[in-house]
Write a structure and sequence with these properties.
By secondary structure, the chain is of the alpha/beta class. The strands form four sheets. Strands 9-10-14-13-12-11-15-16 form an eight-stranded mixed β-sheet. A four-stranded parallel β-sheet has the order 2-1-3-4, with helices on both faces. Helix 8 packs parallel to helix 9, helix 9 runs parallel beside helix 16 and helix 12 crosses helix 15.
Length: 602
């Protein structure tokens, strides 16, 4: 199938825009490759230090200059369900490396915090910046320069983007990402949302809420809704970082174990010790990144990736913009409905056809680049396959050619919507994004008076007092990266949903984030410039009429511009101490704008 002209046009524009930065990135990569692996330059004392604690067989093999040494960078901790299964991976990887004549070492760990635990808590103000910490921790882990490839173990929110940024910085090393997979299905997501709404209205107590939450989050693996964690896994598959079909295989199963070991064998195969050398800087290019954006739009993925994809692309010398994403979204049909965009969870999505079906449909429709490098080999068509075990041996076969449940996943010829899941919102209030895949068409356009809040707690208090039982555009400002680290505001969702269910026209406008759990309420988020930088949101007052139009992508305040900016801006709240927030002051001071990835590196 010929490439869709819009996808071709956007790709060409990204290539042209990125010409100089991409050339500089590739030049740095080639210089590192020509300099030879660091292990070849390490002194005997350096090398002895590197293997001092290794088993005897690994020490002997380390003397062989043709034996690949794999570095493992892991986000393991046993508190978070998505990362708990990673505990067993290093041993599996080391065994697999030995089977193919190599070695593997645990190079280092990176932090992994959970937005689900920190929602509405002070720790959430560290969340976005943890991405940068993870990237830097990845660099520290690889700084020993003793590795021929990297294996990156991580799943959730900021962890995968941080690992990707770190891996791309070591452009001369091959990179394989190794996921853990989703937990088994628990309480249906629709029921969980119902209980949350009842709790917000005071109709059930904390005991009932906790019971529902524990029934939802009940075992090892990723949370089963289609939030940032599972969007990350989709992305790693579509960009070729995973082995085909790796994303949504349950943890602690024979198939998952086989995929982990094969990831190690594949990493060893693509080092410069063999004939299939594939450094990550060559593997990931403008086409790979466009494929990732298409996947985000086709599956209705997390709004967080509007930040992370820009930052990840920048790490590879590629300049990606919100306009690129918006244009791709308008050309990409919505092929999946997974909660919060539907009632199914990712296990149902996997059973209905999963990534293999989606990728096959995107290829058939000419919406993704087939001619890309992946860790599995040349060509994205390899990812229309799914893994299986035959007599204990890992093999791949063609994935589903038809949807097994059209309420969950559909062909490109009969999509849920002709457009994708994300919309650029722009106007005299600034630029932001809206996740429209879960918003019903009748809620796409709203003009209503503003109710302005500086803190999400203030909004919740006003809701409980009954002050918001009306048509309203809720404005929550000073939530951007410079103000307080851009925490997710998901705690607002149940109350706003209740207002919507009561029949009011409601929208949210904020310079903060709402995450992959963004639901049925129209929410213009990531608004830039943020209020703390003097953006228009700082001048909005209660009662100002605001228009939010997801159809046209317009975000406007219906106040004369001269009169608006004649007002005194709201004062930036002082930074709050405690919970480690003091340590991140330099990041808040130096972070870039949300529409540029909210990065301290750009």
């Amino acid at each position: 199938m010929a490439l869709n002209p819009v996808i071709a046009e956007v790709t060409a524009r990204i290539v042209a825009r990125s010409k100089d930065s991409r050339a500089a990135y590739l030049a740095n990569m080639e210089h590192a490759i020509e300099s030879q692996p660091g292990r070849a330059k390490l002194s005997c004392a350096n090398w002895a230090h590197a293997f001092a604690a290794s088993p005897g067989v690994d020490k002997v093999r380390a003397l062989d200059p043709n034996a690949p040494n794999l570095g493992i960078v892991s986000a393991y901790n046993d508190m978070l369900s998505a990362h708990q299964p990673l505990e067993a991976y290093p041993a599996l990887i080391k065994d697999a490396a030995r089977e193919v004549g190599g070695t593997a070492q645990f190079a280092g760990g990176v932090p992994a915090m959970c937005d689900g635990v920190t929602q509405g808590r002070p720790g959430m103000e560290l969340s976005l910046f943890s991405r940068e910490v993870i990237a830097m921790a990845t660099a520290v882990a690889l700084s020993h320069d003793a590795f021929d490839a990297g294996l990156y173990l991580g799943v959730c929110d900021k962890i995968v983007p941080g690992l990707v940024i770190g891996a791309l910085t070591f452009s001369h090393l091959p990179a394989v990402f190794v996921p853990a997979g989703p937990m088994t299905s628990g309480l249906p997501n629709s029921e969980k949302a119902r209980i949350r709404a009842l709790y917000a209205e005071g109709k059930v107590g904390r005991a009932e809420l906790l019971e529902a939450e524990q029934a939802s989050y009940h075992g090892p693996g990723t949370c089963t809704f289609y939030g940032t964690a599972n969007t990350n896994q989709m992305l790693m598959e579509l960009m070729g970082f995973h082995l085909p079909g790796s994303a949504f295989v349950h943890p602690n199963t024979p198939l998952r174990e086989a995929l982990v070991k094969e990831a190690a064998r594949r990493a060893a195969a693509v080092t410069n010790k063999g004939n299939a050398f594939l450094p990550v800087g060559r593997m990931i290019d403008e086409k790979s990144i466009v494929n990732g954006v298409v996947g985000l739009m086709a599956t209705g993925g997390s709004t967080n990736l509007a930040l992370h994809l820009v930052a990840m692309a920048h790490a590879a010398g590629v300049i990606l913009t919100l306009e690129d994403m918006d244009q791709i979204s308008r050309a990409t049909p919505l092929l999946a409905r997974v909660y919060p965009n539907g009632s199914a969870d990712v296990n149902h999505f996997q059973a209905a056809g999963g990534m293999a079906f989606v990728i096959r449909e995107l290829l058939k429709a000419g919406l993704v680049h087939e001619d890309v490098q992946t860790i599995a080999g040349q060509g994205l068509s390899l990812y229309a396959q799914e893994p299986f075990l035959e007599d204990g041996a890992l093999k791949w076969r063609d994935g589903a050619t038809e949807s097994l449940d059209t309420a969950i996943v559909r062909p490109a010829s009969d999509p849920f919507s002709p457009e994708g899941g994300l919309r650029l919102m722009a106007g005299n209030l600034g630029r932001g994004v809206m996740k429209i895949s879960a918003v019903k068409p009748e809620h796409h356009v709203i003009t209503a008076p503003a109710a302005v809040f500086q803190e999400q707690e203030d909004f919740i208090a006003a809701f409980k007092r009954g002050e918001l039982n009306r048509d309203v555009v809720v404005v929550v400002r000073f939530q951007g990266p410079s103000a307080n680290g851009m925490p997710e505001l998901h705690n607002l969702s149940p109350s706003i949903s209740v207002l919507l269910d009561r029949g009011y026209k409601v929208a949210l406008v904020t310079d903060g984030r709402m995450s992959g759990a963004s639901g049925k309420t129209p929410a213009a988020i990531h608004v830039t410039p943020e209020a703390a930088k003097g953006g228009p949101l700082a001048y909005v007052q209660d009662g100002d009429m605001i228009s939010v139009n997801a159809e046209t992508g317009e975000l406007k305040i219906l106040v004369d511009e001269a009169a608006l900016f004649a007002r005194a801006p709201a004062s930036v709240p002082a930074s709050k101490p405690g919970f480690g927030r003091e340590l991140f002051g330099w990041m808040r001071n130096g972070v870039g704008a949300a529409d540029a990835g909210a990065s301290v590196f750009a």
